[in-house]
Amino acid sequence: MITTLAVENYRSLRRLIVPLDRLNVITGANGTGKSSLYRSLRLLAASARGGAVAALAQEGGL
User: Fold this and answer.
1) Which of 39, 45, 50, 58 has the greatest number of beta carbons closer than 10 A?
2) Do residues 4 and 17 make contact, with C-beta atoms less than 8 angstroms apart?
3) Are residues 24 and 4 in contact, defined by beta-carbon separation less than 8 angstroms?
4) Taking Cα atoms as reference points, which of 34, 27, 28, 31 lies closest to residue 7?
């Protein structure tokens, strides 16, 4: 299980370190990076499944 997620310079997230547990709820006002956090998790999952190239292409590249 992933216990910590660190995201740096991805979309609206400049530097974010989030401790994770078995269940996590992300809340916040509009424009605070919730969707960027979700997209970073999707990119990580795609990379773990061997689909990093396709996931990066879908994101628009590096």
Assistant:
1) 39
2) yes
3) no
4) 34
Three-state DSSP at 18 gives strand
Instruction: Please report where in the chains the tokens 């990580």 appear, as a residue.
Output: 44
Contacts of 39 (CB under 8 A, 6+ apart): 10, 11, 59
Q: What is the pTM of this model?
A: 0.81
DSSP, collapsed to helix, strand or coil, labels residue 58 as helix
**Per-residue confidence band for 33, with pLDDT thresholds at 50, 70 and 90:** very high
Structure tokens at 41: 């998790």
